[in-house]
């Protein structure tokens, strides 16, 4: 009796190794990490266990609870940076003395941006309020809000809520705290909600592999970077955009991707993989609806600022053009370890790194062209999540900036593209651990911090791991029998109109002498079943 409740089958049978597409994947049977994690709780799911009958604890709700726990841990990790102390004059100040934000590894952009973006001023408004930076020096510059429109408005709304909270606290209605601490907590609340939406969307998109959303929920990258910046807003929009596409709602998908692009630009990258896959499947009408709606949505959100606050609105684009290579970009790694100064060298104030921008853009476009070729020539049409993951990873690897929180972009895509728990958790741990040497590098060697070379060494390890993930995704594209999503007979849960569609345009590699004919790109259900039986 106990074996029926707690024990998995002694050997995989056809019924458990390849469940029907309408049934739920059981991670404790198919994934070694999940199987090991269940041992303290009684072992893997029993073969006769009642599944799907609990009145409340569905897999989605369990994943959301896990996400709440991870986000709580993430908040405690940042809480050290919103502590205060009392000065000799009796004033309360934020306690960032002695490099506390780096030593405690609690740094968050949210805290300094409250004053840096003039959000603490009651009459400020993003893209209208300006200030002079480095006044009186050769680096003097007029500055505006440096974020895309929705991210800027998100900060402004939270600042207004902060002003309301502090006013109520002064009247005795609410507990008081430093305004910047109140601002951080309000922002963290809404970012948490955005990440919960991301988890929900991944669970709904994964369908029969709903438990894969648990990796999104408990990712170490979430614990470290959920509150480092505002990227959870974009991940929520991107994930729900993919969900809408998977449910054959291309217009809604376009709206959500356009909203995401107004917060961070990367959701627009999804239009490239969708273009390639829709071209291959002859579904260009659906792609046109999504792309047109995405661009229109982005334009509607941005147009008022483009027309009436153009100088402030263009600040984001200007800074990204003039920005030099980030400390943890591959270009900085090459420059540091080789001593090569070919990426423009020292720049004058306001001067753009033309060579670096050109090299970065050319490399990204070249990789996108290669990914497009893969999408059109693979024996079987790749899944949407696979190509989206490859494109976003290519952007991060070739971009001159890889801010640490950008790794959150990859988390939902990686789980949908390559749902191998142990592998993904290993990558996430490596990527999250880069935060520690980064903080101690910023602390400076004069304050007992790390030399730059130690930090860049961990950056190289992270990039190598991401490249390996890309290689594994490519391997599963060319060998669909190794794809855990397709091994049970499904085609593409994220595909929407592409799921099960016939190929229309395919680039076939030239056959070698005596070689086998490549498999036809037929995605009909009958052919998939015959392939599985073979």
Structure explained in plain terms:
The protein has 534 residues and is an all-alpha fold. Helix content is 57%, strand content 2%. It is built from 25 helices and 4 strands. Strands 1-2 form a two-stranded antiparallel sheet. Strands 3-4 form a two-stranded antiparallel sheet. A hairpin with a 5-residue loop joins β1 (84-86) and β2. It starts with a helix and ends with a helix. Mean pLDDT is 87; it is low at 1-22 and 513-534.
Topology:
Layout: H1 2-6, H2 14-17, H3 27-30, H4 32-37, H5 59-79, E1 84-86, E2 92-94, H6 100-103, H7 110-116, E3 131-133, E4 141-143, H8 149-170, H9 179-206, H10 213-218, H11 220-225, H12 232-246, H13 250-261, H14 271-281, H15 284-308, H16 310-313, H17 315-322, H18 330-338, H19 354-377, H20 384-398, H21 410-417, H22 421-433, H23 435-443, H24 452-478, H25 525-533
Antiparallel strand pairs: 1-2, 3-4
**Low-confidence region ranges:** 1-22, 513-534
Q: Kindly estimate the percentage of residues that lie in beta strands according to DSSP.
A: under 5%
N- to C-terminal distance: 36 Å
Q: List the domain count as a whole number.
A: 1
Q: Compute the CA-based radius of gyration.
A: 25 Å
Query: What percent of the residues sit in helical stretches (DSSP H or I)?
Result: 55-70%
* Biggest sheet details: 2 strands, antiparallel
Mean pLDDT: 87
Order of helices and strands: HHHHHEEHHEEHHHHHHHHHHHHHHHHHH
Helical segment tally?
25
Number of strands: 4
Shape: globular
State the secondary-structure class.
Answer: mainly alpha
Q: Identify the strand order in the major beta sheet.
A: 1-2
Region (Disordered): 1-25, 495-534
Main location: membrane
Pfam families: GT87
Transmembrane segments: 180-203, 215-245, 251-279, 286-309, 355-376, 422-441, 453-474
């Amino acid at each position: 009796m106990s074996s029926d409740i707690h024990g998995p089958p002694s050997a995989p049978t056809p019924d458990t190794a390849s469940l029907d597409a309408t049934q739920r994947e059981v991670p404790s049977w198919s994934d070694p990490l999940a199987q090991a994690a269940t041992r303290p709780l009684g072992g893997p799911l029993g073969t006769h266990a009642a599944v799907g009958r609990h009145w409340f604890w569905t897999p989605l709700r369990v994943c959301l609870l896990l996400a709440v726990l991870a986000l709580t841990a993430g908040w405690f990790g940042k809480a050290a940076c919103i502590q205060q102390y009392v000065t000799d004059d009796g004033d309360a100040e934020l306690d960032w003395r002695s490099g506390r934000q780096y030593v405690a590894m609690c740094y968050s952009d949210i805290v300094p941006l409250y004053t840096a973006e003039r959000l603490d001023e009651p009459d400020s408004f993003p893209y209208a309020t300006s200030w002079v930076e480095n006044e009186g020096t050769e680096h003097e510059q007029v500055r505006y809000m440096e974020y895309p429109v929705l991210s800027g408005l998100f900060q402004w709304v939270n600042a207004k809520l902060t002003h309301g909270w502090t006013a109520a606290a002064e009247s005795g209605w609410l507990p008081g705290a430093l305004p910047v601490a109140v601002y951080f907590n309000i922002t963290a609340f809404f970012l948490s909600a955005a990440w919960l939406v991301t988890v929900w969307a991944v669970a709904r998109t994964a369908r029969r592999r709903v438990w894969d959303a648990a990796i999104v929920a408990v990712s170490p990258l979430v614990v470290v970077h959920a509150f480092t910046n505002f990227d959870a807003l974009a991940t929520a929009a991107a994930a729900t955009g993919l969900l809408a596409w998977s449910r054959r709602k291309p217009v809604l998908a376009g709206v959500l991707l356009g909203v995401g692009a107004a917060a961070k630009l990367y959701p627009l990258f999804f239009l490239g993989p969708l273009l390639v896959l829709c071209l291959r499947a002859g579904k260009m009408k659906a792609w046109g609806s999504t792309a047109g709606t995405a661009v229109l949505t982005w334009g509607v959100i941005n147009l008022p600022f483009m027309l009436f606050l153009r100088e402030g609105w263009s600040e984001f684009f200007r800074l990204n053009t003039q920005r030099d290579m980030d400390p943890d970009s591959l270009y900085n790694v090459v420059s540091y370890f080789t001593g090569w100064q070919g990426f423009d060298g020292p720049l004058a104030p306001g001067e753009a790194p033309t060579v670096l921008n050109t090299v970065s853009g050319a490399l990204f476009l070249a990789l996108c062209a290669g990914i497009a070729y893969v999408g059109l020539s693979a024996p079987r049409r790749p899944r949407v999540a696979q190509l989206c993951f490859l494109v976003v990873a290519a952007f991060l690897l070739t971009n001159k900036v890889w801010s640490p929180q950008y790794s959150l972009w990859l988390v939902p895509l990686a789980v949908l593209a390559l749902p191998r728990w142990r592998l993904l958790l290993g990558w996430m741990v490596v990527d999250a651990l880069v935060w520690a040497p980064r903080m101690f590098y910023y602390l400076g060697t004069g304050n007992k911090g790390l030399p730059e070379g130690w930090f860049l060494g961990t950056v190289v390890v992270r990039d190598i791991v991401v490249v390996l993930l890309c290689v594994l995704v490519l391997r599963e594209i060319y060998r669909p029998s190794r794809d855990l999503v397709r091994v049970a007979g499904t085609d593409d849960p994220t595909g929407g109109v592409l799921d099960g569609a016939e190929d229309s345009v395919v680039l076939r590699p030239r056959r070698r002498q005596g070689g086998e004919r490549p498999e036809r790109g037929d995605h009909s259900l009958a052919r998939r079943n015959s392939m599985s039986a073979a």
